[in-house]
Write a structure and sequence with these properties.
The complex is a heterodimer of chains A (about 525) and B (about 325). In chain A, strands 13-12-14-11-15 form a five-stranded mixed beta sheet. In chain A, strands 1-10-9-8 form a four-stranded mixed beta sheet. Chain A is built from 16 helices and 17 strands. In chain A, helix 14 runs antiparallel to helix 15 (about 455-470) and helix 15 packs antiparallel against helix 16. Chain A has a domain at about 275-500: Dipeptide-binding Protein, Domain 3 (Dipeptide-binding Protein, domain 3, Roll). With about 525 residues, chain A is of the alpha+beta class. The longest helix of chain A is centred in the C-terminal third of the chain and has 17 residues, at about 470-490. Chain B is mostly helical and about 325 residues long. Chain B has a domain at about 95-210 and about 235-305: MetI-like (MetI-like fold). Classes of the chains: A alpha+beta (about 525), B mainly alpha (about 325). Chains A and B meet through helix 5, helix 6 and helix 13 of A and helix 2, helix 3, helix 8 and helix 12 of B.
Chain lengths: ~525, ~325
């Protein structure tokens, strides 16, 4: 019976968040109008670290491989060929070879070849003459020794050691292939790709326009004539725009749960889905300076959390509790429930947890008459500020008096990167639901994004071990072990994994909202409008 | 008069130089520049890449050198390049000026055309129901924040007409073209209309008690002539001062209104540029606003002399 349930759950996950098959034969034409939540800093996906860039510019490009766009859950099994017709691992799993598609042209008419693949990844690895202005995902390719080509239509990634996750990283919306003959500067302002839509214009703070690539190598696609994004940073105006019919679709995964209720009230016909976005809200604790260099205090902090209260207040119950990896059913690598609940602070009895936390605080020299005063630093935007306020309230139960220290957005990341905080509340997004991306980036000794200074050489060995493990089930078990250890060490206590909404009008067909990443599902070549 | 104008122009120049220094220094006192923002937000900071970008943008130069480069460029009509869009700053700023200018002009027009007549009416009918009603309206105009009013208008518009007057670069009808400017102009102009009305009212009340008004009435002049030809003409000076000051303050209201109505004007662009620490855009935009304010003040002073024959600027 259990296996039947598991099968049913698996089948559900493989279904798109919105059923495309029931939508009928796709119609050609129409401009998809969408609002954009802010003005992206540039049009170059490789130089960005926000999905504000992926959403409008991913339709311009192709990857070597990509996550199938109508499957909601990104996994190795949902990776399909894109510019590569096929791929193969060498017997020692240290070489990944792609056979490339022939006859593909860049939007300016030049042919796509393996040289473009080499150029792109050499630039990402910092090995080429041309440089990106910034290269936020350089570490994704730490295990790649070299990218080699064999003729115009074959490219290989030669690795230092096996890394099965590489294929998933290459399938991300963050990994398009760039043309060799266009400079990084031009890619920031007028990008050229091979994808289903061509770049028309990007007016900062105003609009982004894409038009159909009539010469697209996938015959019959795209269905739309174009996509237009109107940049509306004010959320209320944007939602009113959708409700009044000015837009066919909201910005993906940007509608909060309270706003979703308003949308449904004012536009009852709108199709809305709420999905996890693989962004965790977590506590960053500076363990290199007092008082949080004391493990007892860090543990007390983790024990004080009432995660359900956070979720109830902020998401009306629609969010998930988990460790570092995104919880199931959206996440692929989540610990089983029993294992999660065995971690201190995750047990259902909040009062018992807090009683234990108070004992730890007393052991560290604090109590009702000697409370610990700390500043809780966070970014000055509601999705950061709101949980920080709840956190301060919950910490009062264990003799900690928190004071909210809101930091301007521009200063937030520099401040945490300098470790100029004692306790903070942060959000961590994952582009790919894979432990390699999450573990190395956030918990590896010396990583720029390891804001908490957490460094455990034993765990680092396990990071490498899981990364090189080619047996999926064995790797999963290792990942669970690591994730459990990270939570027990209070490396970066995870409070919850949020969910957000996306809405579109019923005549928009072929939209699939990914359930374990908000970075990978914006190719829009299958999207069409029934009107 | 000529000497006065020359003196004022010289003073304007000194003021603008002072403002340019203040803008320049203040921008650099604010922690973080665009390189910090770009790199730290993205993580994985490579110090060499960061230093290269700082060098490329000229941010490694001493501050006085950066200032001289900017002013030197400005004098040659070169406003520099936007750090974010990498386009010439002039190319980024110019298309936005007419949008904001149209909005600001409409807001001021709304403020004057509503505020002055209603202020006169309120003063002439002092103590009447009409006076009390208008005073309540003016008080609410001063109390309601323009962003709130803007959102209220949008919500009402969606609810009543199923559409909303947010910016559209290619309006289909003239009514739409009018609405996309007129409605936000009303939202932002409501506050200054209320202020104009209150100033007009109090100024009119003072004038209406003067002896020469009584004399005009005694001579048999009609009420319209007394109110508009004799009283308003003399009461208008403080109103012009207020409108001049409001023109300067309007930019603050426009930031919010442009955001709510999604108008791609100068004010919203300034905030966005500040968020990115896009120095060339911020510096040049603030200078532009400073020039507008200084010129508006100068124009108001000149208008005094044109309107009131008693005022003469001596040499």
């Amino acid at each position: 019976m259990r296996s039947v349930h598991a099968l049913a759950a698996a089948a559900l996950l493989l279904l798109p968040a919105y059923d495309v098959a029931s939508a009928g034969e796709p119609k050609q034409g129409g401009i998809l109008r969408m609002y954009h939540r802010d003005s992206p800093g540039s049009a170059s996906i490789h130089e960005g670290a926000t999905y504000s860039i992926n959403v409008p510019f991913m339709p311009i490009f192709n990857n070597l491989v990509m996550f199938k766009q109508d499957v909601a859950q990104n996994s190795v099994d949902s990776i399909v060929p894109d510019l590569a017709e096929s791929w193969a691992w060498s017997s020692d799993n240290k070489k990944l070879t792609f056979k490339l598609r022939q006859g593909v042209k860049w939007h300016d008419g030049k042919p796509f070849t393996s040289a473009d693949v080499k150029c792109t990844f050499d630039m990402l690895m910092g090995k080429s003459q041309q440089k990106f202005r910034q290269n936020p995902r350089k570490s994704w390719y730490d295990q790649v020794n070299e990218v080699t080509v064999n003729g115009d239509y074959e490219a290989s990634f030669e690795l230092k050691r096996p890394q099965p996750a590489l294929l998933s990283l290459l399938a991300s919306g963050y990994t398009p292939v760039y043309p060799c003959h266009v400079s990084p500067a031009d890619m920031r302002t007028k990008p050229t790709g091979t994808g289903p839509f061509k770049f028309v214009e990007f007016k900062a703070n105003e609009s982004i326009k894409l038009t159909k690539n009539s010469d697209y190598w996938k015959k019959g696609l795209p269905h739309l004539d174009g996509i237009e994004f109107t940049i509306i940073p004010n959320r209320s105006t944007a939602i009113l725009g959708f409700v009044s019919g000015k837009f066919d679709m909201t910005f993906p995964t940007e509608v909060s749960i309270p706003l979703l209720k308003e949308v449904k009230a004012q536009a009852p016909n709108a199709v809305c889905v709420v999905e996890p976005i693989n962004v965790s809200t977590n506590i960053i604790v500076n363990s290199s300076s007092p008082p949080f260099d004391n493990l007892d205090i860090r543990r007390a902090l983790a024990l004080a959390l009432d995660r359900k209260a956070f979720i109830q207040i902020m998401f009306e119950g629609q969010a998930d509790i988990g460790g570092t990896m995104l919880p199931a059913p959206g996440g692929l690598w989540a610990m089983p429930k029993e294992m999660l609940e065995s971690i201190p602070g995750y047990g259902p009895d909040i009062n018992a947890n807090r009683e234990e936390a108070r004992k730890l605080m007393q052991k560290a020299g604090y109590g009702p008459d000697k409370r610990l005063a700390v500043k809780v630093a966070t970014r000055n935007i509601p999705i950061y500020r709101d949980p920080a306020v709840i956190l301060i309230d919950q910490m009062k139960n264990i003799y900690i008096d928190g004071e909210l220290d809101v930091v301007d957005t521009a200063q937030w990341f520099p401040k945490v990167a300098r470790k100029d905080y004692s306790l903070g509340l942060n959000l961590t997004g994952n582009a790919v639901d894979d432990p390699d991306q999450s573990f190395y980036e956030n918990y590896s000794c010396g990583s720029e994004r390891n804001y908490t200074n957490y460094c455990n050489k034993e765990i680092e060995k396990l990071f490498d071990q899981q990364s090189a493990e080619t047996d999926k089930e064995k790797r999963k078990k290792l990942v669970w072990e690591i994730d459990k250890k990270l939570q027990e060490d209070v490396a970066r206590p995870i409070i919850f994994h949020g969910r957000t909404g996306t809405c579109w009008n019923p005549y928009v067909k072929g939209i699939t909202v990914m359930v374990n990443s908000s970075y990978n599902g914006y190719r829009y070549e299958d999207v069409w409008m029934d009107k | 008069m000529f000497a006065y104008i020359v003196r004022r122009l010289a003073l304007m120049l000194v003021t603008l130089i002072g403002i340019s220094i203040i803008i320049f220094v203040l921008l650099r006192v604010v922690p973080g520049n665009i390189v910090d923002i770009l790199f730290d937000a993205a993580g994985f900071v490579d110090p060499t890449d960061k230093a290269n970008l700082e060098k490329e943008l000229g941010l490694n130069l001493p501050i006085y050198q950066q200032y001289l480069n900017w002013i030197g460029g400005l004098l040659h009509g070169d406003l520099g390049y936007s750090y974010v869009s990498e386009k010439p700053a002039l190319q980024e700023i110019l298309p936005r000026i007419p949008i904001t200018a149209r909005l600001a002009a409409l807001a001021l027009l709304f403020s004057a055309s509503i505020g002055i007549p209603l202020g006169v009416l309120s003063a002439v009918h002092q103590g009447s129901k009409l006076d009390y009603t208008l005073r309540v309206v003016s008080l609410s105009g001063l109390s309601l924040p323009s962003f709130w009013l803007g959102l209220l208008i949008l919500m009402a518009s969606v609810s009543l007409f199923g559409t909303m007057p947010i910016y559209n670069p290619n309006p289909k009808t003239w009514t739409e073209a009018f609405a996309i400017y007129a409605v936000p102009a009303m939202a932002v102009g409501f506050r200054s209309a209320a202020l104009t009305m209150r100033i007009t009212r109090s100024s009119m009340l003072e004038i209406l008690r003067q002896d020469y008004i009584r004399t005009a009435r005694a001579k048999g002049a009609s009420e319209t002539s007394v109110n508009y030809r004799h009283a308003l003409k003399n009461a208008i000076l403080p109103v012009i001062t207020v409108i001049g000051i409001e023109a300067a303050f309007l930019i603050g209201g426009l930031i919010v209104t442009e955001t709510v109505f999604n108008i791609p004007g100068v004010a919203r662009f300034l905030v966005e540029a500040l968020r990115w620490r896009d120095y060339p855009i911020v510096q040049n935009l603030v200078m532009l606003i400073a020039v507008v304010v200084v010129v508006a003040n100068f124009t108001v002073d000149m208008l005094y002399a044109a309107i009131d024959p008693r005022i003469r600027y001596g040499d």
